[in-house]
Specification:
Rossmann fold, elongated, 10% strand, 234 residues, alpha/beta
Length: 234
C-alpha cells in the first residue's frame, strides 16, 4: 500500500506538469495566431494607405465647384517643372493651374484672396505636386521655380476701382517683384495683360493684329487709369 501511494504521489505532479505544458503551448499558439492576425491587418492597412496615396497623387478630388476628376501623369525629374502662378485662385488662374497639373508639373499658387477663392483650387489641396501660399505680390517672396505666370490683379471694374492705389501697386510693384524673382532664379515669366489696354475697341474680341487707335484709349483712359497701366491680368 505504501508503495502504491508513493507511485500515485509521483504520478500526480507529473500529470500537473503535463497539463501546465499543454496550457502554455495552447496559450502560446493563441498568442502567435493573434500576433499573425494583427500583423496581417497592419499589412493590409499599410497596403490600403499606399494605394490611397498613389491614387491621390494621380488625380484631383471631386468637389462641389469641380465635380469631375482630372488625371495627373507622373513625369520624370528632368521633365517636371516647378511653376509659380500668381493669382492662381482666380477664375483664369485656377483653369491655368488645372492645365499645368494635368501636364504633371509642380504648381505653386500665390494669392491674397482679394478676388480669388480657395474653392477654385481646393480639388488639388491633397496633391503632392500642389502648393497654395497666401501672399501679396506687392511684397517680395523667395522661391525656387522654373516658370512664372503672373496673373495677380483685380480683374473686374468694381474690384479694381474699390482700391485704385492698391490696384496700381499690384500692377507695378507686384510685376517688379515677379521680374526680380525671375531674374534671380533665371526663370521664364509670362505677364498676362488686360484687354482694357485696347481702350474702347471696335472689334470684339481683339486679335493681336488689332491696332489701338489713340482716340479709343484716351476716351477710356480717365475711367480706368488705375487699371490700364501694366495691369497683369485678364
Amino acid at each position: 500500500m505504501a508503495d502504491s501511494n508513493d507511485d500515485d504521489s509521483t504520478i500526480e505532479p507529473d500529470a500537473k506538469r503535463v497539463k501546465t505544458r499543454v496550457k502554455r503551448t495552447s496559450a502560446s499558439g493563441v498568442g502567435t495566431l493573434v500576433a499573425d492576425n494583427l500583423s496581417s491587418e497592419a499589412e493590409q492597412r499599410m497596403q490600403r494607405f499606399i494605394e490611397d496615396r498613389q491614387l491621390l497623387a494621380a488625380q484631383s478630388i471631386p468637389t462641389a465647384s469641380t465635380p469631375y476628376v482630372m488625371k495627373t501623369p507622373a513625369l520624370s525629374d528632368a521633365e517636371r517643372m516647378k511653376i509659380l502662378v500668381t493669382g492662381g485662385a482666380g477664375f483664369v488662374g485656377s483653369h491655368l493651374v488645372d492645365k499645368l497639373m494635368m501636364q504633371g508639373h509642380e504648381v505653386i499658387v500665390l494669392d491674397n484672396f482679394f478676388t480669388g477663392n480657395k474653392k477654385n483650387v481646393e480639388h488639388w489641396h491633397h496633391h503632392p505636386n500642389f502648393s497654395l501660399v497666401r501672399h501679396d505680390v506687392t511684397q517680395p517672396i523667395l522661391l525656387e521655380v522654373d516658370q512664372i505666370y503672373h496673373l495677380a490683379c483685380p480683374a473686374s471694374p468694381p474690384h479694381y476701382q474699390y482700391n485704385p492705389v492698391k490696384t496700381i501697386k499690384t500692377s507695378t510693384m507686384g510685376t517688379i517683384n515677379m521680374l526680380g524673382l525671375a531674374k534671380r532664379v533665371k526663370a521664364r515669366m509670362l505677364l498676362a495683360s488686360t484687354s482694357e489696354i485696347y481702350g474702347d475697341p471696335t472689334v470684339h474680341p481683339q486679335p493681336e493684329s488689332y491696332w489701338v487707335r489713340t482716340t479709343e484709349c484716351l476716351s477710356f483712359f480717365a475711367f480706368i487709369l488705375c487699371y490700364v497701366i501694366l495691369s497683369p491680368c485678364y
